[in-house]
Structures are given as structure tokens and as C-alpha cells.
């Protein structure tokens, strides 16, 4: 390729010596592109490994399964569909979002709801971050309320994630903050109260493909709280206090809810953590 590049250069450029820096620049660009592609493939493979192992260990015949939201859950639904076809499993799948509902329908799985299935055997969901005490940050995709409702109805909440979501403490790797779903009319007072009580900053999450803020599946706004990372936090107490603020619908803190977490690694292995 570089020989072809040299032949395409003008004689004056070659004689001036500038061709060498051009070739080096091209080489670096190609190397960077290939390295990025490899990293992305490793990340996706890690998600897939975690999802497959969780589904194989927790999804049983004649059960009701909560289906979470996010990129890792896509692999979980694919594996569930594979097992339903191969093993004839009888399952009812409860979605946590519009995305999850579409995944269930597209894979030909049985779609259920909490009215008919108020108790679930397990829920499989992703996380934005998991700390050493199995406290989760969820809601990066804006589905925290329905995710928490479904998780609260499940006997076991199983978390699937890649290695970048595994942290000793919250905020170590995930820097987008803790989502707080709020009633639209209350977002300014809530912002002030949380900042005054706990520090940090809260920002109204803005939409990408529309003008104005993100609106959740439930018609609410989301405030992302960048909390002080240099403090030790009792997340259970913090969560309870924030939930008492009028207008707060729910938070992306999942405390004492997860049963087990699977983290896919770069080498294809999966590490596990239990509550």
C-alpha cells in the first residue's frame, strides 16, 4: 500500500523529503484505526460472554424473566432466543423499556407484563457501574424507573457488563453521574436541593435528535448528578434522602438489589461477584 502511495506522490514532494512525514502520518492513522476497531471488538465480545453465561446459569424452563435495557442486554436476549429454540424453554419475558419490548418481540419471545406476572424468577440487566459492595449506577439509557420496578419484583437481579463497568467505588470509571428521574415541573428545585445537601452539580440531560431535554418513557426529565468523588458516601442513606424530595420519581442508585454480577473480560473470560 505504501509503495502505491509513493508512486502517487509528485516528484517535487519526494525530492523535498516531505513524503516521509506523509507516509508516517498515514501509517499512524491506519494503526490507530485498526487498534480502535480491535478494542471495540474486544468490548463487544466481553459483553457477549457475560450475557451468555448469565443466561445459561439463571434462565430456567417455566419461568418469568425480566429483560433489562442497554447494549449488553441485546446479547442476553439473543441467547435466550437461541435456548428457547434449541431447548423448547417456556418463558415469559417482562420488558423494562421500549427497547427491551422491541427486542422481545423481534426475537419471537413471549411478551408479558407485571399485571399478569407480578413476581419474576429473575431479571437480567446491565449497569453503568458496579462497585465492590454491589451498589449499581443505572439509567445511562434513561430507563432507570422501569428497570428498578422490574428488578424489585424479581427474586434475583443478575447484572451483566463488560470489564469497564467494574469499579472499587462509584465514580471510579463512570463519569457521567447518577441519573435522577424527576417530574418536569420540579427539576430546578430538585437540582438546588441536591446540590445544597450533597454537593456536586446536577445537569438536565438534553436530547440528541430533538430540541430540548430527554423525556423518559414515563414522561419525566432526567438530572445527572456529578457527585463529589473525594468523599465517602453511604449510598443507601443518600438514595433514601433524595427519594424524599418532592418531585423525585426515582434514582439510578440500585442499593442492595443485585444478586450477582458477571463481567466479561478482554480475553473472553468472565469474572463473577455475588452480593
TrEMBL record:
MF term (GO), any: ribose-5-phosphate isomerase activity
Record's keyword terms, sorted: Isomerase
Reaction catalyzed: aldehydo-D-ribose 5-phosphate = D-ribulose 5-phosphate
SUPFAM superfamilies for this protein: D-ribose-5-phosphate isomerase (RpiA), lid domain, NagB/RpiA/CoA transferase-like
Top-level taxon: Eukaryota
GO biological process: D-ribose metabolic process; pentose-phosphate shunt, non-oxidative branch
CDD domains in the cross-refs: RPI_A
Record GO cellular component, one term: cytoplasm
Pathway it works in: Carbohydrate degradation; pentose phosphate pathway; D-ribose 5-phosphate from D-ribulose 5-phosphate (non-oxidative stage): step 1/1
Annotated InterPro entries: NagB/RpiA_transferase-like, Ribose5P_isomerase_type_A
Enzyme Commission identifier(s): 5.3.1.6
Family: Belongs to the ribose 5-phosphate isomerase family.
Record-given protein name: ribose-5-phosphate isomerase
Native source species: Anopheles quadriannulatus
Amino acid at each position: 500500500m505504501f509503495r502505491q502511495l509513493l508512486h502517487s506522490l509528485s516528484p517535487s514532494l519526494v525530492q523535498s523529503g516531505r513524503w516521509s512525514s506523509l507516509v508516517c502520518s498515514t501509517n499512524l492513522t491506519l494503526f490507530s484505526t485498526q487498534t480502535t476497531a480491535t478494542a471495540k471488538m474486544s468490548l463487544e465480545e466481553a459483553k457477549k460472554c457475560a450475557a451468555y453465561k448469565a443466561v445459561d446459569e439463571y434462565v430456567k424452563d417455566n419461568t418469568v424473566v425480566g429483560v433489562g435495557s442497554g447494549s449488553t442486554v441485546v446479547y442476553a436476549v439473543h441467547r435466550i432466543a437461541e435456548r428457547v429454540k434449541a431447548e423448547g424453554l417456556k418463558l415469559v419475558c417482562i420488558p423494562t423499556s421500549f427497547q427491551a419490548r422491541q427486542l422481545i418481540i423481534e426475537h419471537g419471545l413471549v411478551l408479558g407484563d407485571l399485571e399478569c406476572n407480578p413476581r419474576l424468577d429473575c431479571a437480567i440487566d446491565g449497569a453503568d457501574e458496579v462497585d465492590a459492595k454491589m451498589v449499581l449506577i443505572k439509567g445511562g439509557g434513561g430507563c432507570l424507573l422501569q428497570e428498578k420496578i422490574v428488578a424489585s419484583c424479581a427474586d434475583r437481579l443478575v447484572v451483566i457488563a463488560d470489564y469497564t463497568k467494574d469499579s472499587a467505588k462509584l465514580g471510579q470509571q463512570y463519569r457521567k453521574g447518577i441519573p435522577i428521574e424527576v417530574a418536569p415541573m420540579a427539576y430546578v428545585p430538585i437540582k438546588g436541593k441536591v446540590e445544597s445537601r450533597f454537593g456536586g452539580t446536577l445537569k438536565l440531560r438534553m436530547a440528541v435528535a430533538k430540541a430540548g431535554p430527554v423525556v423518559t418513557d414515563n414522561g419525566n426529565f432526567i438530572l445527572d448528578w456529578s457527585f463529589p468523588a473525594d468523599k465517602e458516601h453511604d449510598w443507601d442513606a443518600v438514595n433514601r434522602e433524595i427519594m424524599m424530595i418532592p418531585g423525585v420519581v426515582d434514582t439510578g442508585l440500585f442499593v442492595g438489589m443485585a444478586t450477582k454480577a458477571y463481567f466479561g473480560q478482554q480475553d473472553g473470560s468472565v469474572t463473577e461477584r455475588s452480593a
